[in-house]
Amino acid sequence: MSDLFALDGRKTLRDGAVLLRGRALAVDRALLDAIEGVVAQSPFRRMVTPGGFQMSVAMTNCGRVGWVTDRTGYRYDPRDPETGAAWPAMPDIFRTLAREAASDAGFDGFAPEACLINCYEPGTRLSLHQDKDEQNYAHPVVSVSLGLPATFQFGGLKRSDRPMKVPLQHGDIVVWGGPSRLVYHGVLALKDGEHPLTGGRRFNLTFRKAL
Ligand code: MD3
Ligand code: FE
Prior knowledge:
This protein has two helices and 13 strands. By secondary structure, the chain is an alpha+beta fold. The protein has a single domain (10-208), classed as Sandwich (Jelly Rolls), CATH 2.60.120.590. It has a seven-stranded antiparallel beta sheet, with helices on one face. A four-stranded antiparallel beta sheet has the order 7-12-9-10, with no helix packed on it. Strand 1 and strand 2 form a beta hairpin. The N and C termini lie far apart (42 Å). Bound molecules: N-(carboxycarbonyl)-S-(naphthalen-2-ylmethyl)-L-cysteine and fe (iii) ion.
C-alpha cells in the first residue's frame, strides 16, 4: 500500500500537518447553512491591511472573538467593526467538527474561540503568510474547505522556503499543529468553476484558539 495516503483518507503533509480528506463531507450542507446564518448577521467584507491594501478574499467571523485587519494592524476583536455588535455565536456544528478533526489529528480537547470564514471568488488569492496573531502556538489551527477546489501552498518557517502545492477539495480538513503551526502558507488564485452547493465560490473555515 502507498505510504502517502492511508485508506482512511489521512495524509501527513509535513510534520504536524494532517490532511483529512473528505472529513467534512457528511455535514457539508449543515456547514453551508450555518455560514449563511453567520453572514446574515455579520456579512462578508474585504478588509484592509495595515499597509493600506484591500484583501481580495472576503471575510467574516463567528465565535467570542474574530480576526480583523485595518490600518491600525491585525487583531482578534470581540466586536464586528462593521456592525459594532458582537460576532455571531459559533454554531455547534462548527465547534463539534473542529474538535473532532483536531482529535483525529492527535490534538485532544481543541476548544477554539474564533472561526474566520473566508470567501473566494474566481481570481481571488491569499498570498503567503504566517498565522501569528494568536496567543499560544501550542494549539493547532483547523481548516475546512467547502465549494470550489483550490491550490493550497505551504512552505516552511522561512518565507524563502520553497512552497509545496496541495489541491484542497470540498470537504477536506487540514489540521496544522506542532512544528507546522507557524509555516508560511497561501492559496493560489481560484479558478473559474461551478460547485453544486456553492456555485462559483469557495469557502474556508479556520478555527483558532486565539486567546
Ligand atoms: C497553516 N486560509 O485564513 S487554510 C487563513 O484556504 C488561511 O482560506 C487559507 O490561511 C484558506 O489564515 C488556508 C489552511 C491553513 C490555515 C491556517 C494555517 C493553513 C495553516 C495556520 C498555520 C499553518
Ligand atoms: Fe493563514
